[in-house]
Design brief:
With 119 residues, this protein is mainly alpha-helical. The protein has two domains: 1-76, Multidrug-efflux Transporter Regulator, Chain: A, Domain 2 (Orthogonal Bundle), CATH 1.10.1660; 78-119. The protein has five helices and two strands; from the N terminus they run ααββααα. A two-stranded antiparallel ribbon has the order 1-2. A hairpin with a 5-residue loop joins β1 (29-30) and β2.
Length: 119
């Protein structure tokens, strides 16, 4: 299928499909005229990429995980579970950092509001 067909079928913009290909997440073959052609498994690959992006994984990690899927779903082989657990822990750490930053900003806003109220 051509890139426009893949875009329509998956709801993903052509520009993003090109980006996925440039990042090594998606493969195509080129016609003599230079047009991209994708195999019938491409929509499944795009759905997997979208799922992993939504989970907060960077494209570098996604590229490593793409060959490790089991079946047509989003289940991955057991050999990558440690890698996913590390990513999960990193998300927890970022959430904790953001929570702390949010609390600090809230304190600044509250103090500033009190100052304006008493001025």
């Amino acid at each position: 299928m051509k890139i426009g067909e893949l875009s329509r079928e998956t709801g993903v913009a052509v520009r993003l499909l090109r980006y996925y290909e440039a990042q090594g997440l998606l493969t195509s073959r080129r016609s003599e005229g230079g047009h991209r052609h994708y195999d019938s498994a491409a929509p499944v690959a795009v759905a997997r990429i979208r799922t992993l992006l939504a989970a907060g994984l960077p494209t570098k990690v996604i590229r490593e995980l793409m060959p490790c899927f089991v079946g047509d779903g989003t289940e991955l082989q057991a050999c990558v579970l440690d890698h996913l657990s590390t990513q999960y822990a990193e998300l927890d750490s970022r959430i904790a950092d953001l929570t702390q930053a949010r609390a600090a900003l809230g304190e600044i806003l509250a103090a500033s509001s009190r100052t304006l109220t008493h001025a």
